[in-house]
Amino acid sequence: MARRKQIYEGKAKVLFEGPEAGTIVQYFKDDATAFNGGKKGTITGKGVLNNRISEYLFQKLNEIGIPTHFIRRLNMREQLVREVEIIPLEVVVRNTAAGSLSNRFGIPEGTQLPRSIVEYYYKKDELNDPLVSEEHITAFGWATVQELDELLAMALRINDYLSGLFLGIGIRLVDFKLEFGRLTHENGEIQIVLADEISPDNCRLWDLKTNEKMDKDRFRRDLGSVEEAYQEVARRLGILPESGPGDMPGPATMQ
Ligand SMILES: Nc1ncnc2c1ncn2[C@@H]1O[C@H](COP(=O)(O)OP(=O)(O)OP(=O)(O)O)[C@@H](O)[C@H]1O
Ligand SMILES: [Mg+2]
């Protein structure tokens, strides 16, 4: 198995050069961070579960016509994706008050929002990913007005679809974070596509009946049973083999 050239190491994933130009391999680590790296830890098996959960959700989104970077899963911890130029925004969609929204406005966690709210954060660790308005985004050139229109429409469709999907397995999609990128096609056309990952690392998922948290808040808030919660999400999605994530099959050879 030829060693791939590492392009970038982030907090949750490592990016390697892919087998073909314009592709990269996302390797999902077990490392967990919170509060912009202020809290660090390991969640055993998280990388395997997030790789599988994100694969499943991206495939579902592809099926309903959301363009994404996802090509295919390679093995337990790696997936092949199209390389994009990441738009430096975290696009957060909220259905229920929680986390920073609750803190900022004094709205108790769990309050149903009158409608879904989309927020943009500028991806800049040194600045703690500040909340920004559309004015900032277009004035500073992080995205054009047209790109923003497009990614907003996609974010809302993704929210509608995923809210229903999770509802069907007894989970409330409280909020989640998306990243988008610019994909350059061979004919030079540039398309906005969904990139990065969707997993319990960047969604708030609450059990519909008990409101129990099934996401990274268990790590952030030291609630315990973090791996079990991620496993339960995978199990309800129907993608966790009975014997656990260690037995999840991947292709025998990597191409
Ligand atoms: N298709 C893609 N092409 C290029 N870069 C991508 C693609 N999908 C995701 N990325 C980037 O790969 C990195 C994934 O690593 P990880 O999630 O660990 O980063 P992170 O620690 O959250 O840091 P940051 O997102 O601030 O760089 C992110 O920087 C993400 O924006
Ligand atoms: Mg990330």
Automatic annotation (TrEMBL):
GO biological process terms, semicolon-separated: 'de novo' IMP biosynthetic process; cobalamin biosynthetic process
InterPro entries found in the cross-reference section: SAICAR_synt/ADE2_N, SAICAR_synt_PurC, SAICAR_synth, SAICAR_synthetase, SAICAR_synthetase_CS
SUPFAM superfamilies: SAICAR synthase-like
Gene Ontology CC terms, in alphabetical order: cytosol
Listed EC numbers: 6.3.2.6
Name of this chain's protein: Phosphoribosylaminoimidazole-succinocarboxamide synthase
Assigned keywords, A-Z: ATP-binding, Ligase, Nucleotide-binding, Purine biosynthesis
Higher taxonomy: Bacteria, Pseudomonadati, Pseudomonadota, Alphaproteobacteria, Rhodospirillales
Annotated catalysed reactions: 5-amino-1-(5-phospho-D-ribosyl)imidazole-4-carboxylate + L-aspartate + ATP = (2S)-2-[5-amino-1-(5-phospho-beta-D-ribosyl)imidazole-4-carboxamido]succinate + ADP + phosphate + 2 H(+)
Organism listed in the record: Insolitispirillum peregrinum
Enzyme class: ligase
Family (UniProt): Belongs to the SAICAR synthetase family.
GO terms for MF: ATP binding; phosphoribosylaminoimidazolesuccinocarboxamide synthase activity
Pathway: Purine metabolism; IMP biosynthesis via de novo pathway; 5-amino-1-(5-phospho-D-ribosyl)imidazole-4-carboxamide from 5-amino-1-(5-phospho-D-ribosyl)imidazole-4-carboxylate: step 1/2
Sequence ranges assigned to domain SAICAR synthetase/ADE2 N-terminal in this UniProt record: 6-236
